[in-house]
Amino acid sequence: MASTRPNQLFRNKSAKIAAIPMIVTALFVFVGGTAWTIVYSFTSSGLLPRLKWVGLDQYERLWDTRKWLVSIENLAIYGLSMLVLVFVIGFILAALLDQKIRFENTIRTVILYPYALSFVVTGLVWQWILNPEFGVQNIVRGWGWETFTFDPLYNAEIAIFGILIAGLWQGSGLVMVLMLAGLRGIDQDVWKAARVDGIPAWKTYLFIVIPMMRPVFITTLVLVVTGIVKIYDLIVAQTGGGPGIATEVPAKYVYDMMFQANNLGQGFAASTMMLVTVALVVIPWAFLEFGGSKNRG
């Protein structure tokens, strides 16, 4: 057994040697950049980074800032709503397309197309659609409903839900495609056995199909959550964080601190908190996907 390990180590030497520059670059850029950010989050860096230690002062100041607290609240509202709705919408669309309907390729392309657009384009499109002067509200009022009101981006209490609408429009297509791939991977014998046993379709999906699609759901969850945490372009293009600070999010807070307020230390502290959030999702996923399979093997 021990004699085979050196042989396995030296297999595909050319490929492993060719991968060295990429590995070194990844370690230097990602790992090194992350470590650098965390270290300087404990300093009083302003316009330029400087190693003047202030301990946890930046983090204390961060959690005492109303703008940061509002951004966390908005991220929680947007994130939870997005997670639930994008999975429900994506799975329902995938289940409908899995019925081998006519024009499936065309419908799939149309639904997935928004995902090919940048968040900036999506934000600008929905800024126009939700504008009360010439968007949905204006169109409906033109049909005779003069009292109809639909201006979420101009109402501070519900502005984050205007962002949610645009996010769902863009993200549902990706989830649909991933779910459809998972559904197409289910053995047809499962469906035949369920029909023979007289199990309703919704129960087959809920108690048989969805548990079998666990890896697809976990991978989709990681992709969606990481996208939620780093949301920035959509906010800037659609509302700029307004009205007031009603649609502020952590990523925009980091940008504002680092490039407008010239407070690198505060920006580094905020980005470190974002890193912790992503790590809380990615690490359990990696353990479930790789550690769990290794233990089972």
From TrEMBL:
<keyword id="KW-0812">Transmembrane</keyword>
<keyword id="KW-1133">Transmembrane helix</keyword>
<dbReference type="InterPro" id="IPR035906">
    <property type="entry name" value="MetI-like_sf"/>
</dbReference>
<comment type="similarity">
    <text>Belongs to the binding-protein-dependent transport system permease family.</text>
</comment>
<dbReference type="InterPro" id="IPR051393">
    <property type="entry name" value="ABC_transporter_permease"/>
</dbReference>
<dbReference type="Pfam" id="PF00528">
    <property type="entry name" value="BPD_transp_1"/>
</dbReference>
<feature type="transmembrane region" description="Helical">
    <location>
        <begin position="267"/>
        <end position="288"/>
    </location>
</feature>
<feature type="transmembrane region" description="Helical">
    <location>
        <begin position="158"/>
        <end position="183"/>
    </location>
</feature>
<feature type="domain" description="ABC transmembrane type-1">
    <location>
        <begin position="72"/>
        <end position="287"/>
    </location>
</feature>
<dbReference type="GO" id="GO:0055085">
    <property type="term" value="P:transmembrane transport"/>
</dbReference>
<dbReference type="InterPro" id="IPR000515">
    <property type="entry name" value="MetI-like"/>
</dbReference>
<dbReference type="GO" id="GO:0005886">
    <property type="term" value="C:plasma membrane"/>
</dbReference>
<feature type="transmembrane region" description="Helical">
    <location>
        <begin position="75"/>
        <end position="97"/>
    </location>
</feature>
<keyword id="KW-0472">Membrane</keyword>
<feature type="transmembrane region" description="Helical">
    <location>
        <begin position="204"/>
        <end position="229"/>
    </location>
</feature>
<keyword id="KW-0813">Transport</keyword>
<keyword id="KW-1003">Cell membrane</keyword>
<feature type="transmembrane region" description="Helical">
    <location>
        <begin position="109"/>
        <end position="129"/>
    </location>
</feature>
<protein>
    <submittedName>
        <fullName>Lactose transport system permease protein LacF</fullName>
    </submittedName>
</protein>
<feature type="transmembrane region" description="Helical">
    <location>
        <begin position="20"/>
        <end position="42"/>
    </location>
</feature>
